[in-house]
Amino acid sequence: GGALPVTRTGALLAIADKLDTICGCFSVGLVPTGASDPYALRRQGIGIVQIMLAHQFGFSLREAVVAGLNEFECDNTDLLADAIMTFIQNRINRMLIEDNNDKDVVAAVTSVSIDSVPDVWRRTAALQALKRDDDFEPLAAAFKRVVNIMRKTEVDEAAVPDSALFQEAAESALFDAYQHVKTDVDQHVAAGNLDQALRVIATLRKPVDRFFEDVMVMTDDMALRGNRLALLNTIAGLFSRIADFSKIAA
User: What is the mean pLDDT of the chain?
Assistant: First the structure.
């Protein structure tokens, strides 16, 4: 709750100082527990997030953490960086919930990435706003179905849907809809207009519903199955840049 640094230089110095404390403590096993935080690392983490928000610093948080850990010549830098990112994610989750965002919205957003702190708040605001719409539940259900299928099977992340293998009209319709919205989504995301990006993505609900009604994804024909999974993975790639819809409460 204290005053934040006003100048850019002061803000960066404060972040570096707090990261140095967190990285140093984690590197020697001084990790906060539920009952103990003697070096006030939670407060340091909150301070980092507040400063990055106030100054709209969008640099990679993980890269900053790794740079901090490298000063201590750790043998397990990646594992420690994971632990610190989780520690800061927990601080972000609590801050977002205290800002009156729904817990499931916060979980859906932060589980995707917290690497750019200002981006986390923009994605949360966009998803929270979309959740108020009357047709959000069927939209979330449709996207959940996509995510759940992706998690239940091995998918070649590099695979690209081949329209020559489409057998059902619903496959072509979904792919056409994806191609129609992808450019708009990319432009909105690049411009930081995440609410608009989400609303464009939301137009895919009907073709996704139709796809699941008309298409057998897990067919015995492995070429068709792979192509259909590649199509779903392509669709998932659009909304997974913003949030993990599988974490939205029913």
Answer: 93
- CA 144 – CA 122 distance, rounded (Å): 21
Positive or negative: CA dihedral 56, 59, 65, 69: negative
What b-and-e string marks burial along 64-93, b requiring 16 or more CB atoms within 10 Å of the CB? bbbebbeeeebeebeebbeebbebbbebbb
Minimal CA–CA distance to 68: which of 93, 54, 88, 91?
88
**Which residue is associated with the tokens 């492995």?**
222
State the amino acid at position 3 in one-letter form: A
Sequence letter at residue 183: T
Residue 249 pLDDT > 90: no
Residue 53 CB coordination number (10 Å):
16
- Would you report the helix, strand and coil content of the chain in percent, each value rounded to 5? 70, 0, 30
In the block, residue with structure tokens 């993990």 = 244
Split at pLDDT 50, 70, 90, the class of 250 is low
Q: Which pair of tokens denotes residue 33?
A: 């527990």
Flag whether the pTM goes above 0.90: no
CA distance 79 to 115: 16
Q: State the SS3 of 141-185.
A: HHHHHHHHHHHHCCCCCCCCCCHHHCCCHHHHHHHHHHHHHHHHH
What does the pLDDT look like over 7-55, one tens digit per residue? Answer: 999 999 999 999 999 999 999 999 998 888 989 999 999 999 999 999 9
